[in-house]
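Researcher: I'd like a structural prediction for the single chain below. Treat it as a standalone chain; there are no partners to consider.
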Amino acid sequence: MISCIVRHFNTFRPQYPSFGKANTTTMHTIATELKEQCIIRIEENLPRITKCLHELTEEELWQRPNPNVVSIANLVLHLCGNIRQYAISSLCHEEDTRHRDQEFSATGGYTRQELLDKLSATVTGAVNVIMNASDEELMRQRNVQGFQMSGIGIIVHVTEHLSYHTGQVALHTKLIRQKDLGFYAGIDLSVTNTPHS
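Model: Treating it as a single chain, here is the predicted structure.
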């Protein structure tokens, strides 16, 4: 019975193209496109966070809405720690010096400009590392924060993690200022897709 199931599975299993030497160029092109698209998403969040920080006072940046919600400043420190650990330390083989608990326990110590400078330097460093990551580094498995991940997995994580917390920063800012932040001002987001011809 089991052998019958195996034969059935092998008969109808989808045949995927081989990614051997003949497709090296194709895979390199895909890897480059992946890196470039992730970098676009990473870089577009920096001005959004910058805009939010300039909307708030120094005191409001460290304001915690309730004991279960950290401040915007804490989120910026957390993003710096996460991006450095994943992209810079792991992809670039640098020492992991992260102290995650301190990112959330801090109640001061950084001005608005210091937070922006720290985040900007971290993002810039990560973007350079990602763009220069080799195909081998993208596929290499490694341990990051206790998780087994490939280089591709790391880049995807950094991208979505930054976007996720950028949304939190934006929401927090909107709740304090009670205003739209205009991230998409002047862009018609109601445009529908053009059918593929």
